[in-house]
């Protein structure tokens, strides 16, 4: 975990350094040509720097070990980063839209296009290389912060490609409206990316379950233990950044000794943690006939009836 955090910081520092170089090149391309397209492209990269700096700060929090105030760890902090990053991309897209609209109503000629395009292309190649390198790292480290940052860089690459092509076509065709129109198309694409990042963040904050493949794998582990005696139900999972949590009921015959039941529970926990290293597993032991009170209450609220078999160990206190 700690090691993962250190590697995550290496990726984010590299992206920060790359962003500074890329912004300088893109601003140079704007200075050389006077193209508003290049200016809006540079503006998007400036958002990258702000986002990467924020991600660095957040990863530091996310990797902190669980403490008394946060006994489940701090990994959910990652979702703030992807949420804020999504919002920043959205703002950048809106700024590009505004610039493009201005350009559309007040067309202006641009100069030294081949030189400006070459400078911007060099910046784009740097961005693409760093983005692909980070995406590989994000998959390996299962880090949503690095993935968000890499996807952001990739949208930056698409913006740049669109802008470079549009700006190069302007002197060739004499169509001054082309630059802003392509800018608008690219901005809409970026807006969609922003939406998916914010959605991802909301999913995490709302305790979304593990994905379908992981859920199937978890059920396959439980299948190895299922028998006439053993039943699993109320299996719940959630993902918090790089951490996974699973809780479930393990129902078994009421006549078993506590030792036998505990051995069984231990074996299930061990198998689950072997399949999903680092997962936090909570297994509640229950008899075959009895359901937990909270599940009975939940069903009572949902349907107004209890279908679970209710057994009463000893006489309940009499109400007078
Ligand atoms: Zn149950």
Number of helices: 9
**Percent range of helical residues:** 55-70%
How many domain units? 2
Q: What does the largest sheet look like?
A: 3 strands, mixed
Give the bound compounds: zinc ion
CATH architecture identity of the largest domain: Up-down Bundle
| Mean pLDDT rating | 83
Q: Going across the biggest sheet, name each strand in turn.
A: 1-2-3
Radius of gyration from CA coordinates: 27 Å
What proportion strand?
A: 5-15%
Structure description:
The chain is 68% helix and 9% strand. The relative contact order is 0.11. Strands 1-2-3 form a three-stranded mixed β-sheet, covered by helices on one side. β1 and β2 form a beta hairpin. It contains nine helices and three strands. α3 packs antiparallel against α6, α4 packs antiparallel against α5 and α7 runs antiparallel to α8. The structure holds zinc ion. Keywords: Membrane, Transmembrane, Transmembrane helix, Transport. Pfam families: Cation_efflux, ZT_dimer. Its main location: membrane.
Q: What labels describe this entry?
A:
Alpha-lytic protease prodomain-like; binds zinc ion; 320 residues; three-stranded mixed β-sheet; Alpha-Beta Plaits; mainly alpha
Topology:
Layout: H1 2-33, H2 36-62, H3 77-105, H4 113-141, H5 144-173, H6 178-205, H7 212-223, E1 231-240, E2 243-252, H8 258-275, E3 280-287, H9 293-303
Parallel strand pairs: 2-3
Antiparallel strand pairs: 1-2
Bound molecules: zinc ion.
